[in-house]
Amino acid sequence: MAATHHARPISAKQHWAAGLMMFGAVMLAIVGVLDIFRGIMGIAQDRVFITTSGYVFQYNLTGWGWVHLVLGVVAFVVSLGLFQAATWARIAGVVIAGFLIIANFLSLPYYPVWSTLAIAISGLVIWALCVVRPEKPQAA
Q: What is the model's pTM?
């Protein structure tokens, strides 16, 4: 006799978890792409950014452009893993979003509006990836 297995209906929690994971993936991809562009701007031409004197953290903007470029590429790659709902990508997404927050905080005097917006978006990514707790399959 063949046993029939019935698919369990997807719960509201699972819908929310999937939606938040997708939100985190999309937002991390957007922040990654924009950080790639920001890095390219810093590498190609320092004059795009306004420099301020007397700021505690002073650094070469071309070097800082490379930092943003690398962070942006890693963020985008991690977002691709998040689209697959990979656990490693959730952990890496929280870590890379944290690094993006630090990088954008350090560049506040050079690009204040974008840095503030990027910090907020990265914070939302961290929230979305930490809140999601996919339910484990239950034994039938």
A: 0.73
Q: What is the pLDDT of residues 84-118, one digit of tens each?
A: 888 899 899 999 999 989 988 888 877 788 889 98
Burial 11-38 (b: 16+ CB within 10 A, else e): eeeeeebeebbebbbebbbbbbebbbeb
Task: Quote the CA–CA distance of 85 and 51 in Å, as a whole number.
Answer: 40
Angle at 39 between CA 37 and CA 45, to 5 degrees: 95
Cα 95 to Cα 16: distance, rounded to the nearest angstrom? 22
Residue found under tokens 């890095």: 39
For residues 66, 52, 30 and 77, what is the CA-based torsion angle, rounded to 10 degrees? 20
Both tokens assigned to 50: 């306004």
Distance CA 112, CA 51 (A): 11
Return the structure tokens found at 137: 């399959």
The full length of the chain comes to: 140
DSSP 104-140: HHHTTTTSHHHHHHHHHHHHHHHHHHHH--PPPPPP-
